[in-house]
């Protein structure tokens, strides 16, 4: 079984599983520089919670974990754990700064629905009961 998993990993196409816009990458690099986080990477992950069932997370991390996928976009190193990769493949991260709001925005083609704030999402096969509460207030920060 282990050999089979290893072969599947070798057949996985190389390259980023998610895209980070230049604006987002520059903002993240500036934040890392302000905090003096040399040698750190951006860890993007998915965890249970929020009003739609799953929510996005991003932290600066200097520890590689078994099963992590790592890639670079310009000078920014990005790390995604194996489980989160299933939910984030094909997603994109951008930084929005306008009169209405500012912050990081994740566009995810795997999400079948999202809450109003965009921090929480559900994928096909997700629990409909949890997201039928009708809007935010079930645990996300909007």
TrEMBL record:
Pfam name, any one: Fe-S_biosyn
Gene3D superfamilies found in the cross-reference section: HesB-like domain (2.60.300.12)
Biological process according to GO: iron-sulfur cluster assembly
Listed GO MF terms: 2 iron, 2 sulfur cluster binding; 4 iron, 4 sulfur cluster binding; iron ion binding
Span of domain Core: 18-118
Name of the protein: Iron-sulfur cluster insertion protein ErpA
Protein source organism: Candidatus Viridilinea halotolerans
């Amino acid at each position: 079984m282990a050999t089979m998993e290893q072969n599947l990993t070798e057949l996985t196409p190389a390259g980023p599983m998610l895209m980070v816009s230049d604006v987002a990458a520059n903002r993240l690099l500036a934040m890392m520089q302000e905090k003096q986080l040399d040698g750190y990477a951006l860890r993007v992950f998915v965890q249970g919670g929020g009003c739609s069932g799953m929510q996005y997370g991003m932290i600066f991390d200097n520890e590689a974990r078994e099963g992590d996928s790592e890639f670079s976009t310009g000078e920014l190193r990005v790390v995604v754990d194996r489980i989160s990769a299933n939910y984030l493949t094909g997603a994109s991260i951008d930084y929005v700064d306008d009169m209405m709001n500012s912050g990081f925005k994740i566009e995810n083609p795997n999400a079948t629905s999202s809450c109003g704030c965009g921090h929480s999402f559900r994928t096909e096969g997700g629990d409909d009961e949890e997201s039928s509460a009708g809007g935010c207030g079930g645990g996300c920060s909007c």
